[in-house]
Amino acid sequence: MTYKHILVGLDGSKKADKAFETACALASALSASLSAVWIVNRDRGMDSTFGVSEDFYQDRIGQVKQKLGPYVEKAKKQHIDITAETLLGNVKMLLAKEYPEAHGIDLIVVGDTGLNSIERLVVGSHTSYVIRNASCDVLVVK
């Protein structure tokens, strides 16, 4: 199987950085394009319970967009065709289903855990969801 379009999920964790390195190596070796997404999780329950404002999300999106720059530069130095996006929504749904189906992704690369300390105890809940629900292959990087 040859992969043409690889998706890597980023969140600022060391595991996500390692997943990015793996995704770049694969994209380079396979001459595949790479999409890097950093999803700002929007939890409607948190919004209503704690009064999280739209300004909070917009500020967070702005912060994350700046963090994507070094990833793009690193991939371009390796002559990788990369697209980087910051998205707002449900991390699990966007990473497993919505983004891959909308962009013709045939491989998703994720770290085994994220920034959440509880997720570090076992395979992260987002990663578990992606493994179970993605319609394409998933590579989990430890």
From TrEMBL:
Gene3D superfamilies: HUPs. CDD domains: USP-like. InterPro entries: Rossmann-like_a/b/a_fold, Universal_stress_UspA, UspA. This is Universal stress protein family. Belongs to the universal stress protein A family. Residues 3-142 form the UspA domain. The lineage of its organism: Bacteria, Bacillati, Bacillota, Bacilli, Lactobacillales. Transmembrane segments: none annotated. It comes from Oenococcus kitaharae DSM 17330.
